[in-house]
Amino acid sequence: MNLISHQSNHTDRTRPERGLSRRSFVKAGAAVGGGLLLSINLLGRNDSAAEAGGFAPGAFIRIDRDGQVTFVMNQVEMGQGTYTSMPMLIAEELEVDLAKVHLEHAPPDDKLYGNPLLGFQVTGGSTSVRAFWEPLRRAGATARTLLVAAAADTWKVDANSCRAENGEVIHAPTGRKLGYGALADKAATLPVPAADKVTLKDPRNFKLIGKPAKRLDTPEKVNGKAEYGIDMKVPGMKIATVAACPVIGGKLARLDDTKAKAVKGVRQIVRLDDAVAVVADHMGAAKKGLAALDITWDPGPNAQFSSADLVSALDEASKRPGVVAKHEGDVTTAMAGAARTIEAIYHQPLLAHATMEPMNCTVHVRPDGCDVWVGTQVVTRAQATAAQVTGLPPDKVKVHNHLLGGGFGRRLDIDGITQAVRIAKQVDGPVKVIWTREEDMQHDVYRPYYYDRLAAGLNRDGMPVAFSHRVTGSSIMARWIPPAFVNGLDSDAVEGADGPYDFPNLLVDYVRQEPPAGLTTGWWRGVGPTHNSFMVEGFIDELAVAANKDPVAYRRALLDKSPRARAVLDLAAEKAGWGKPMPAGSGRGVSVIFGFGTYLAQIAEVAIGKDGRVRVTRVVCAIDCGRIVNPNTVRAQAEGGTIFGITAALHGEITLKNGRVTQANFDTYEMLRIDEAPAVEVYVVDSTEAPGGMGEPATAGIAPAVVNAVFAATGKRLRKLPIDGAQLKSA
User: Model's pTM, two decimal places?
Assistant: First the structure.
């Protein structure tokens, strides 16, 4: 998922995180029950209610009288490690042990907890560390400064003679000590120091940042205490499961629920315009009741729609000129004068998220309020949809956020929450709505199908004098964040459409082509870089072959203006042993990308079986993601993202027949198995640049590295995913 309007990839400038402090300010006050509460306005908005009434409970950092430090976590944890890396930022500057920082889920509040890079309270786009790198450090440093000032005032000494260390303030000349808990009340009464009076640590003095740290959330995930949305239990709670119309855009026509009501444990049947829910005492009864329903669906206009229809529409649309995203030089003239031109069509299928935790939401609607228990990446949107459905004011809707058993962008959408609230409105008491795996797979918000046309003009040396890339697909921006869809251009869809390379003449344009109503598209562990990396890196490999040049050397020649990209490419090539002979039926492939503020090169090694089956045996990742908070997390995300991307490259495809999604579970939408997983080697550049994101880059870069390796092994160029082993049998 990527919502940021990016600069050109042709520079090594990173994102504008450094300007965040100028748009944010810190306030301090007394916490409810005593102690210090530190609030950060990250979006630079004037909150008149907060000004008039003090500080809303739960704003980022709270230090209680017993010395406990609580970080009210505005981002959500879905396996990416934010519940460790973000507390590290606070603990570093606050001078407390990382294990002493406790976490609470933040309530919905865009003003208090908004992501400053994205403009509201959202977790996505690999932005958690990027967005809060400076604000959270500054919050910790401000709290530390206040506590030191409180101790100095208590002892009547110069604050410069005091220092903070391990949750205490120490007076150096006398050795006197006071714990943070003893100082919290006084600190809450002191004026907040101006920004220029708060000194952030010199990175050379970091004790936590940049050092490997064990995940704080691991113990409870291992011992079973961790609570995901699906684990929620409320007294008197019923369980509901759902059948939605299997045809995209279809509706409910007729329902006979006589047999379902006779199932033991079934309490209620709830009808919606496009779905039916069975409410029961437990999931077993709900599923039996659902199976007993006699449902007639109205398939609507898409009863005969197929994947072939989707591709045909995209093909026709791609022939139209698009909205220009980038235009440098004169591509038409350069193409006409080129020694050789090469054209290609690359496309990628619809993809499901297939999160291990299927969609679920627990809701209790009452006349005077509504409680929602869910794992979501957009907690304020969850609150807003519940308010809209119930007719309650937003402040009467309480959203309890939870750990996410997989997000990947799926939980940026609120369709499951909206449906759960609609069901709960008709149920007396709390109800947990759980989608079955099949329901989840066949009613996902899918990664768009992209159908791209690429062309390049080469000079006599085989180097590009012109490069054009037309992206054709649906617009997530237009649906999800309409103000960002400007003049018909989806900036995310074209993100990375020219790679990190420098072309003397460049044209990138975008053609919007939407699928039928009812087939909704959304982010899938990124979208722009995730799809464009496959298109561009596959095509660059084609150009290298046409020029009769080594794929790594060819890329190096195009990266003069991006030394960080060239550095990771060189590092990956060195560590992978690029150029060393491979066994027969094996090959190496390379990709290099810039996305989410991170430079990444991947080299994949593959072996092709006699049946054409592709096995990825080894992957080398070289990464420059700027300043690193937790090296363990960087490596884990590179490994996990690589596996996620290989899964899609080898198996991922959602297809349609008669308006229905044909995949239903992991037997037809395969995951990479443990015994298929390659060795993944991760090498990280020691960088002092601002942090980049790590949740998505490895997923974006691996598919082209794999298909380029397949070409090296077989001589067959694959321009469509997933890889079809049948094409390789004769290789």
Answer: 0.93
